[in-house]
Specification:
Elements: E1 5-6, E2 24-29, H1 53-64, E3 69-74, H2 79-86, E4 90-93, H3 106-114, H4 123-130, H5 132-141, E5 149-152, E6 167-171, E7 185-186, H6 189-203, E8 207-211, E9 217-224, E10 243-245, E11 249-252, H7 264-267, E12 278-280, H8 287-303, E13 308-316, E14 322-328, H9 339-346, H10 351-365
Parallel strand pairs: 2-3, 2-4
Antiparallel strand pairs: 1-3, 5-8, 6-7, 6-8, 9-10, 9-11, 9-13, 11-12, 13-14
Helix pairs in contact: 1-10
This protein binds adenosine-5'-triphosphate and magnesium ion.
Length: about 375
Amino acid sequence: MSETSSSKNDGDKPPGQRLKRFWRVAVLANIKDESQPKPEGVPPDAFADFDHIETVQSIQQAIETDGHETKFLMADENLPYALQEYKPDICFNIAEGLGGDAREAQVPALLEMLRIPYTGSRVLTNAIALDKTLTKRIWRDRKLPIAPFQEFSTGDEPLRPELKYPLFVKPAREGTGMGVDMNARVENETEMRERVKYVIQSYQQPALVEDFLPGREFTVGQLGRPDAKRFSRHHEWYDPDGFHRLPILELKTEKSATPGIYSHAAKAQQLGEKGAPEYICPADVEPELAKKLHHLALRGHLILSAIDVSRVDFRLDTDGNPRLIEINPLPGLTPGYSDLCLQAAAEGTRYEDLILEILYLAAGRWELLEPRDLPPMKKRRKK
Ligand SMILES: Nc1ncnc2c1ncn2[C@@H]1O[C@H](COP(=O)(O)OP(=O)(O)OP(=O)(O)O)[C@@H](O)[C@H]1O
Ligand SMILES: [Mg+2]
């Protein structure tokens, strides 16, 4: 895939806050190359989390509407050289990384080493969030509601008594529904052992076994941090705590390619296509449940030290209580398709504004922006 480069004029936003007239922004991504055969021995859904070049182009276009120069840099072994040559002011990072036990942290680690500013969460959060077992151990320690779970490294470990069938088996360190299909739900010991061994062998990583959560499924997106308003292009979006809660998205998967499961096969379908889930946003939920989901999503984000943007996935348990499944500090950003983009669209936020917001929040952290002076907070009257 060749690199694309483009620049635009200064855009129509007053660059008053920017310390430079425009930024050189490198968009970093791993791209799906469907023309190449997959290497031998990888599972059928390998590289499913990589992006299409069109997503990168959409991000570039969104950033250019604000007057910046952009360039796509492939997040592969040549990235260190490409960065040194392009010398970006900041990187917009959507790179999934190239393997190992914390691939989503590879690019942030490189950028930290080269001291180049970048969007979103830093190394530790990206590393831990990719590992669903570690994430759940941390959340459990802070008393967040999660399903009972156990990690299997060999497949021969005795099953802990608190886990009750049906169970759900998935690779501990994948995303985009990889390794999740109708056989992920297991009803008994034989099925569980078979699936665990399949996951360990095919995905070359531990298998995470959890209680099967039979209830409704939601995903909750959030933007911001306590000082977000000082750097945001839309300070009116943010609640007094500095966070913007996007509308809750419900995934209805009963009629999808994998009924009841938001799998890779279901996610791969375009909206409205046969086999795709129904995406309901804003979800039709009681205000109390909505409040709980937003509260838990933000707790999950903060406990893992996620920065500026994330999406937290939930399912309801047998009693109808939400349980956190996982957090995505690098949520998909394909316009009109990725969950976070659907959530933004549902509240009337333009794709360009979502992308620029992620960029500006990062720019504020890396001192590319002068913080905005905000009018003093109105004092609350005591009742
Ligand atoms: N314990 C569980 N009980 C029931 N279903 C589950 C459970 N864990 C996961 N699932 C189903 O599998 C899907 C994928 O799981 P999960 O969100 O952990 O993986 P992912 O591949 O990282 O997702 P993403 O695409 O959001 O990165 C969920 O959306 C849900 O439908
Ligand atoms: Mg998920």
